[in-house]
Amino acid sequence: MHYESPVRNPLILGDKSYSDITNDIAKPVESKAPRSWWIAFSIAFVMFLWGVGCILYTIGTGIGVWGLNKTIDWAWDITNFVWWVGIGHAGTLISAVLLLFRQKWRMAINRSAEAMTIFSVIQAGLFPLIHMGRIWMAYWVMPIPNQYGTLWVNFNSPLLWDVFAISTYLTVSTVFWYVGLIPDFAMIRDRAINPIQKHIYKLLSFGWGGKAKHWQRFEEVSLVLAGLATPLVLSVHTIVSMDFATSVIPGWHTTIFPPYFVAGAIFSGFAMVQTLLLIVRKIFKMEDYINIEHIEMMNIVIMVTGSIVGVAYITELFIAWYSGVEYEQYAFLNRATGPYWWAYWAMMSCNVFSPQFMWSKKLRTNLVFTFIISIVVNIGMWFERFVIIVTSLHRDYLPSSWSMFSPTFVDIGIFVGTIGFFFVLFLLYARTFPVIAQAELKTILKSSGENFKKHHDEHGAH
Amino acid sequence: MFEFSSKTKQLAIALTVVGAILWIVGFALNGSSSNEADHGHSSHATEHHADASHDDHADAGHDDHADAGHDDHADASHDDHGHAGNDDYPGEAHAAMIESALEHDAHAAHEAHQIANRPWSALYVAAIFFLGLGLGQLFFLGIQYVAQAGWSAGLLRVMEAQAFAIVIPLIVILIISFLGFGHVHHMFHWMVEGIDVQGHPNYDAIIAEKTGFLSPLFFSIRAIVYTVGWIWAAKMLRKNSLLSDSGDGVAMWKKNRGVAAAFTVFYAVTSSTSAWDFIMSIDTHWFSTLFGWYTFAGMFVSSFAALILITLYLKGKGHMEWINENHMHDLGKFMFAFSVFWTYLWFSQFMLIWYADIPEEVTYYMQRFDQYKVPFFTMLTLNFLLPVLAVLSRPAKRVPGTVVMAAFFVLVGHYMDHYVMIMPGTVGDHYGFGLLELGAILFFTGLFIIVVLSSLAKAPLLHKNHPMITESKYFQQ
Question: Is the minimum CB–CB distance between B150 and chain A shorter than 8 Å?
Fold first, then answer.
């Protein structure tokens, strides 16, 4: 039997039945889009188109249109790449790691978090592709037997490991997400009135029949995929960090990078989940399912991971001094007090100081404050990558080549475009997919639903 | 209620006493026996002495105690630091030694110091290892409260008892480091007299820069802060837990959540800084930002192995009937998962240093690769391959025999990991596994058993009013 301690807060508020859950979650898919959706979609779509234009301009002219120079030959492109990959991590963490840790509050947020993962990894993948210049040769990054003589990928390069890590990650995340969606698509299929809609959801749901055997297989495959996704999620940002840490550039080469990047990725990803879900729950009236308990939990994760990142910052700073290596010492001194001091302190205040507000119960249960902090963290984590990448490069061993980076309109346009693209995908998803894993959520109604919990408390637990 | 039987008590005391005697005998024999055991080395030194081309020694003198790999890096090291290698021992400064006779004296002194360090190093490795067994569970106990874990409520008393195992190792670590200040041994390079005094024969430019952090006073303050902070947390968590048996379980649970949150923050910082102080500072020149987290992972996983062994011992005695194969399965998962996590951190640190191959860092692994090949690869096998092969599958984690075997070898593996971390910087290639090491292990094992079992015997093994206790009883997977 399943028993839940009375000290745990309910995860589903109100007097809900199974059919209430079905109705509430199917509603956004079955009803017409509200005006606010159309406004948001139009803005995102325009941003997306602007980004497409800038990308086409880059491909047509060459990456000389970016603000890169001889000293800083990697800037916004890789910053944006790492930022987007990092955001993706929270989805897998929520659906896989929290599944392994049996965290039931995950069920209200995992679907959207995983959607976010997939959409942000797509944005991330764009940057290395564009950066190649000749994007039509992109398949050369795969070790495909060919007739070009010595043309072969460099297995010593972490950039190649990135190709494998991210493509595997995208594949497994998509499969994981899709498997979870099957029973929910079937739910929409069974309710659909429009025959075309019914047919589409019929195809999508793979003939799901809800038999005991189906559920058993469903649970088994979910667990196996969670087990696979957990090391994967660690591997992706680990390898991203190795893009920098395998080098001998002061500020890049440091052993703490792999776990610290993973912690930072989870941190930024949770902030993005928080941003998205605060909007989703409001627009789709899902406050009973994604309630204060969930928001508080996510804020605690943000606080913990932000503090881990803070410990890593301080460790780096301290060891730079302790190492006695003057180049290492200068790299960090220059970060904090050099011409990019503002970026460093933006990073410090957004990522380390701002999450500390979440120690206060009052603040971490305040929706407006949570929303602001989630945006602040997203900004901070972008700055973190900018600081690591640009400030480590801009003053190299030869002072005559010291330089500053200024982005062109193309750099900005592509970044804005990926934000637009991300929201286009997310908004389309929110209208056509069940945004909460309703089949899973129903499994906890009788143990974690407010009405049932109250009943248990009054009439004894068993 | 568990009773610490007098028979078990006698056995534990016997282990402690025998361990102490073995260590003392080993200490007494140390100089003489190593002269025989390390015959190869002394003849090597003689050969060195006899060598006519003494002039070369100023440059090449380090070859015989540093690893061969240093050849590649000797130039770079000299340029950067005016100093060779990272495994230099107290009292030596190659660059300053032009006189070959002096060079040889310093070399002989080095060897003598390394040999003399061995008893202390043997004790120290065991102390750090047993500290980890307690500290890992102290942290895990805190996490149970912070994360509102339900399944583990029936195991909390075991964790509480295990957390007290930090006390004796901490005292031993403090004593050994204070003896270092008095130059009784030369385990810590930075504790050497005159290390930061310019013009002193022991002067070391790199270490001199670090003395702002590595000074006897600041080091002692930190070591005492860790000791007090950690023991405070163990005591508070235990006190509130015992109070909950006779009072309001929910209130005490909430109180412990506060204690645990405070401890988690304290530990987030001190787990790293203590690893730098207690272990990383032995190889004083070397540094790695990941070192703190790596050390934590090793301590954490070995504490799970110990928790599994203690729990199964108690179950074997007919206690803790509320802990079934579902709980043991979860403990097995934790041991497995953190074995992989440890490997992940080991690999991250090793691979990045190997890949970058810069002299400031890579010398650390070169010495281990060169002189410590057998323990180095054995510990990797035991800490990674063995858990993966033995306890990856679900059925295996539910069979006590398999889990006990895996837990035992994980403990052996992590002892060896600490050995490989500590020994190269203190005894160089004068290492071995003899009376000293065995004695130190037995000594701490006996004390560990006494501390853990006697605190287990002091209170019921099950929390009466813990709000999660019913969840834990009905837990299944």
Answer: yes
